[in-house]
Specification:
The protein has about 120 residues and is an all-alpha fold. It has one domain. About 80% of the residues lie in helices and about 0% in strands. It is built from 6 helices and no strands. The termini are far apart.
Length: about 120
């Protein structure tokens, strides 16, 4: 039963991670790392599929090995995140409260990225 729950949680995490690529304020990285953790404990096949993903596999493997992100990766994450926040705040949101919430979520995301240690590479 635990195996099924972990597979479901991993799959939901992958889904939220993909949504986070598009939706500002929703982080991608923690969801993909959570998915890797769930799959590692429940399904070798899904875990290998995630690790062999052309887009996310190298990033997940490096993070698991080093528990760190390169400065370049952090910069790319922050540029993409703040670009989407700016676009959403400009074109998708009309109310001040929504824009303030979006900005605060952006600050929280920025803080979480900056708190991850820098990898030497």
């Amino acid at each position: 039963m635990l195996k099924i729950i972990l597979i479901i949680c991993g799959t939901l995490s992958v889904g939220l991670g993909f949504i986070g690529i598009i939706l500002p304020g929703l982080p991608t990285t923690p969801f993909l790392l959570a998915a890797a953790g769930c799959y590692a404990r429940s399904s070798d096949r899904l875990y290998e599929k995630l690790l062999n993903s052309r887009r996310f596999g190298p990033f997940i493997r490096r993070f698991q090995e080093e528990r760190a992100l390169s400065r370049r990766t952090k910069l790319k994450i922050l540029i993409m995140m703040w670009t989407m926040i700016a676009l959403s705040g400009t074109f998708a949101l009309t109310g001040t409260v929504g824009r303030i919430v979006l900005f605060l979520l952006g600050l929280a995301g920025t803080s979480s990225i900056l708190l991850i240690k820098n990898s030497p590479s």
